[in-house]
């Protein structure tokens, strides 16, 4: 009903006269015409009502109804988690805060569907409260408007020490207002939780600056870990693995790392960055791959004291190498017309520094080896070997993509057996597309299918530097081979492509053969252990008649028989450039092998044929 002030005052008077009342329900009342003065008269009457056992101001269980009565009589804590507190319920709680005779110190309203209007009303009550120390408003619908009003109330409230606002809808504007209130005013707040809000880089940096300056705020929740702020200021090793860090948390961490903190070892694997909006399709860096938070973190690590960085479950040597690679990344500022002369001058200095980093990293590289099939390392090239890294996850992939986005020296990235899927391939592909330094990318033995192959193919069409791509032991099939064939037609630099053990049949072989006919720069193609039969082998042979660049073709462990072998022999008679051909473990007879050997002639190179029965 719409009781209004008169109805509330009348009810308060009647309560004093009634000697039997045990349960009072006020749910669903209109609060538009109810003042805090009338609520205070009702609360005073309820406080004196000894027979009252249950008070319902919202739709909650009997246990909470009994607790509400106790609060009216002076209980210091009230927990209404999970209650729909829109309307009269939240208004009554505000009345409790206004009542100076009550000493409520903790009010918990998590998951109560409180929106901005409710937050604004709560903010007004906070300015009058002289006892409340903890206010929990987690998992509600509060956005920037409500956060700004709460920030205003913090400037005037003399008692609040802990404020939980995690998992709401607060953005940069709300975060900036809260940061301003904590920085410019002598608040008592010691603990603030904003985890799980869509706060971006600007808001996170403002809050980080506040944390640095505030002597009282020592529990700022990042990744739902209240101890992190203290650790960032005091500890040399921080473990944030499995803490479900989102974009805001990473931005905040990046800002704190720039503050010359003591952290030397940082563990970040198994987090959620990239899963829940952390990656935007058109982010501020124009990079559709790595999320902005990961890019900001890479930039911060460049200036930090971190010497060991774990983005997945790899060993300490690789953690050291990762940290060194981060320090070899470029700054975030882009050259402008005004400082173009300065940028030109600093370029030489940067590459001098990069050469020093190369020397340091090359010492680390000598200790790290991996079974990738790559050729010997070239002198002065930086290789990041993360082969066989467990649980790379979206965070690890995002971080590596951020390195590719910013790094000017990394030439080899080895990610074999890292459980990467199509999404991981997509993130890396966009980073590779914009990278002009990477020469070798190894993604062997992962879970990349045709969708991932399509993303990588798109990257190859926009990349003019990558020379070697290892994709063996994935799940691309004929569709994936078709996508890679498209890449070969438009890419002008790729020299080596390994597609062994991908379930490629005659259809995929034909697509690749059609691409080879256009005389791509490709020098080596490996298709071992697929499902290629005579038709596919004949198509590849037809390509060899026209292609004059390919030097190595690996077709071991397929199902090639007499007709396929005959086509290959005929192609060899017309192609004198092919230097290496492997056909081991196919169904080729001795007679067919002999024809291939005769067509091979006296050329220098490797010819491996099936071992016959004789």
**Coarse shape:** elongated
Helix content estimate: 40-55%
Number of helices: 21
Q: Quote the beta fraction.
A: 5-15%
Query: Low-confidence runs (pLDDT<50, min 5 residues)?
Result: 275-288, 332-380
Radius of gyration: 34 Å
Mean pLDDT: 81
Given helix and strand content, the structural type is alpha/beta
**In this structure, how is the largest beta sheet organized?**
9 strands, parallel
Terminal CA distance:
100 Å
Query: Count of DSSP E strands?
Result: 20
Spatial strand sequence of the major β-sheet: 12-13-14-15-16-17-18-19-20
Could you give a quick summary of the protein structure above?
The chain is 43% helix and 10% strand. By secondary structure, the chain is α/β, with parallel strands linked by helices. Helix 21 (590-600) links the parallel strand 19 and strand 20 (606-608).
């Amino acid at each position: 009903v719409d009781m209004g002030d008169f109805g509330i005052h009348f009810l308060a008077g009647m309560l004093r006269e009634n000697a039997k009342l045990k349960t009072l329900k006020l749910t669903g009342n209109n609060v538009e015409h109810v003042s805090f003065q009338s609520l205070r008269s009702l609360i005073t009457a309820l406080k004196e009502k000894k027979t009252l056992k249950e008070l319902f101001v919202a739709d909650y269980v009997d246990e909470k109804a009994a607790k509400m009565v106790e609060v009216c009589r002076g209980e210091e804590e009230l927990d209404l988690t999970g209650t729909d507190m829109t309307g009269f319920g939240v208004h009554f709680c505000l009345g409790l805060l206004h009542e100076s005779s009550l000493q409520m110190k903790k009010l918990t309203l998590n998951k109560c569907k409180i929106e901005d209007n409710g937050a604004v009303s709560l903010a007004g009550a906070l300015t009058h409260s002289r006892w409340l120390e903890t206010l929990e408003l987690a998992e509600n619908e509060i956005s920037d408007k409500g956060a700004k009003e709460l920030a205003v109330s913090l400037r005037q409230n003399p008692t609040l020490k802990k404020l939980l606002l995690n998992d709401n809808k607060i953005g940069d504007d709300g975060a900036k207002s809260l940061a301003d209130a904590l920085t410019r005013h002598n608040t008592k707040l010691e603990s603030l939780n904003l985890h799980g809000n869509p706060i971006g880089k600007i808001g996170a940096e403002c809050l980080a600056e506040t944390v640095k300056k505030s002597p009282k705020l020592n529990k700022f929740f990042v990744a739902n870990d209240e101890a992190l702020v203290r650790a960032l200021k005091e500890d040399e090793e921080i473990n944030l693995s499995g803490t479900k860090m989102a974009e805001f948390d990473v931005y905040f961490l990046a800002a704190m790392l720039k503050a010359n903190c003591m952290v030397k070892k940082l563990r970040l694997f198994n987090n959620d960055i990239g899963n829940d909006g952390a990656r935007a399709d058109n982010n501020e860096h124009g990079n559709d791959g790595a999320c902005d938070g990961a890019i900001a973190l890479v930039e911060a690590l460049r200036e930090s004291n971190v010497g060991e960085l774990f983005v997945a479950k790899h060993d300490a040597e690789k953690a050291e190498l990762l940290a060194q690679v981060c320090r070899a990344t470029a700054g975030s500022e882009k050259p402008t017309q005004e400082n173009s002369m300065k940028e030109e001058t600093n370029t030489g200095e940067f590459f001098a520094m990069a050469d020093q980093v190369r020397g340091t990293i090359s010492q680390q590289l000598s200790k790290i080896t991996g079974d990738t099939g790559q050729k010997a390392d070239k002198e002065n090239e930086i290789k990041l070997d993360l082969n066989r890294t467990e649980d790379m996850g979206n965070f690890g992939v995002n971080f590596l993509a951020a390195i590719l986005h910013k790094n000017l020296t990394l030439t080899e990235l080895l990610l074999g057996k890292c459980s990467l899927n199509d999404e991981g391939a997509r993130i890396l592909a966009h980073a590779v597309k914009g990278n002009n330094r990477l020469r070798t990318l190894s993604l062997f033995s992962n879970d990349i299918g045709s969708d991932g192959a399509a993303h990588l193919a798109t990257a190859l069409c926009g990349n003019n530097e990558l020379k070697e791509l290892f994709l063996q032991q994935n799940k691309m099939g004929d569709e994936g081979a078709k996508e890679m064939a498209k890449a070969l037609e438009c890419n002008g630099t790729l020299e080596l492509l390994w597609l062994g053990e991908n379930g490629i049949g005659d259809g995929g072989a034909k697509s690749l053969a059609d691409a080879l006919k256009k005389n791509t720069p490709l020098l080596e193609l490996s298709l071992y252990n697929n499902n290629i039969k005579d038709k596919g082998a004949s198509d590849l042979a037809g390509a060899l008649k026209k292609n004059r660049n390919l030097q190595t073709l690996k077709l071991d462990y397929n199902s090639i028989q007499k007709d396929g072998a005959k086509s290959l022999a005929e192609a060899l008679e017309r192609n004198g450039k092919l230097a290496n051909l492997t056909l081991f473990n196919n169904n080729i007879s001795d007679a067919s092998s002999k024809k291939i050997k005769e067509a091979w002639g006296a050329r220098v190179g490797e010819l491996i044929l099936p071992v016959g029965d004789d």
